């Protein structure tokens, strides 16, 4: 099923690279769900650093940042393990 703008999706529980469960969409905050390429993608890294720079503003606006990557948790920990947002591995592109 293809998701289109304005569609409501059911809440899913995803597991971050740190092993934490995260609800997507967040039932209490607006969710900004990012579909990223692979761990170490230079374009993704530059964009994510701009998100990190504005993290305080984003959280103050009650927005929950979640980034999905087409990489394994092991690959992501070295590239995105220190990001102040929820990072989810989706190596098989299931999501």
CATH structural architecture: 3-Layer(aba) Sandwich
Q: Name the average pLDDT.
A: 91
For the record, the CATH class is Alpha Beta
Number of strands: 5
**How large, in whole angstroms, is the Cα Rg?**
13 Å
Could you walk me through the main structural features you see in this protein, from its secondary elements to its overall organization?
The protein contains three helices and five strands; from the N terminus they run βββααβαβ. It has 95 residues and is an alpha/beta fold. It has a single domain, classed as Glutaredoxin (3-Layer(aba) Sandwich), CATH 3.40.30. The strands form two sheets. The chain has a three-stranded parallel sheet with strand order 3-4-5. Strand 1 (12-15) and strand 2 (21-24) form a beta hairpin. The model has no long low-confidence stretch (mean pLDDT 91).
Which labels suit this protein?
26% strand; two-stranded antiparallel ribbon; single chain; 3 helices; alpha/beta; 95 residues; three-stranded parallel β-sheet; Glutaredoxin
Question: Summarize this, please?
Answer:
This protein is an alpha/beta fold and 95 residues long. The chain contains 3 helices and 5 strands.
SSE arrangement:
Blueprint: E1 12-15, E2 21-24, E3 30-35, H1 42-53, H2 55-60, E4 63-69, H3 73-80, E5 86-89
Parallel strand pairs: 3-4, 4-5
Antiparallel strand pairs: 1-2
